[in-house]
Amino acid sequence: MSQTPTASAHQGRLTVGDAAPDFTLPDDQGGEVTLSDLRGKKVIVYFYPAAMTPGCTTQACDFSDSLDSLKARGYEVLGISPDSPAKLAKFREKDHLTITLLSDPDRKALDAYGAWGEKKNYGKTYEGVIRSTVVVGEDGTVTHAAYNVKASGHVAKLRKDLGLDT
């Protein structure tokens, strides 16, 4: 008899060489984005806990500030959180974000990418979004995966790790 994992079961984290799980999620502008539609491009998929919080704002602004140079190197950027499309639209407007923001309230992508799980904060343990970044190559496989990343300085570190600032 096989067991069905519960909603809180932690999915395994992705590693380099894994096939990136496909997803279709609503964006903040009334459309949908499907990862497999971006084949042929490199895609930075990053997961963050909540729009309009200090760390998530820092990270989203850093990605937006870096977007033109990332696109020039063949990268797209997708930011995913459990927030509603309406909240993401407010986030975009308030902070003048240029990256693509996707809504994952059912946690399908968060779970598939291992970006939802147990967290500890001030001695309390709870379930939530694990700030993570996965880079998907043109062929749909994972080329870089980082979990429990820091919000500030993450984009600069990612650019260095990807060899973009040489």
From TrEMBL:
<keyword id="KW-0575">Peroxidase</keyword>
<feature type="region of interest" description="Disordered">
    <location>
        <begin position="1"/>
        <end position="31"/>
    </location>
</feature>
<dbReference type="InterPro" id="IPR024706">
    <property type="entry name" value="Peroxiredoxin_AhpC-typ"/>
</dbReference>
<dbReference type="GO" id="GO:0004601">
    <property type="term" value="F:peroxidase activity"/>
</dbReference>
<dbReference type="Pfam" id="PF00578">
    <property type="entry name" value="AhpC-TSA"/>
</dbReference>
<dbReference type="InterPro" id="IPR050924">
    <property type="entry name" value="Peroxiredoxin_BCP/PrxQ"/>
</dbReference>
<keyword id="KW-0560">Oxidoreductase</keyword>
<feature type="domain" description="Thioredoxin">
    <location>
        <begin position="14"/>
        <end position="166"/>
    </location>
</feature>
<keyword id="KW-0676">Redox-active center</keyword>
<keyword id="KW-0049">Antioxidant</keyword>
<dbReference type="InterPro" id="IPR000866">
    <property type="entry name" value="AhpC/TSA"/>
</dbReference>
<protein>
    <recommendedName>
        <fullName>thioredoxin-dependent peroxiredoxin</fullName>
        <ecNumber>1.11.1.24</ecNumber>
    </recommendedName>
</protein>
<comment type="subunit">
    <text>Monomer.</text>
</comment>
<keyword id="KW-1015">Disulfide bond</keyword>
<comment type="similarity">
    <text>Belongs to the peroxiredoxin family. BCP/PrxQ subfamily.</text>
</comment>
<dbReference type="InterPro" id="IPR036249">
    <property type="entry name" value="Thioredoxin-like_sf"/>
</dbReference>
<dbReference type="InterPro" id="IPR013766">
    <property type="entry name" value="Thioredoxin_domain"/>
</dbReference>
<comment type="function">
    <text>Thiol-specific peroxidase that catalyzes the reduction of hydrogen peroxide and organic hydroperoxides to water and alcohols, respectively. Plays a role in cell protection against oxidative stress by detoxifying peroxides and as sensor of hydrogen peroxide-mediated signaling events.</text>
</comment>
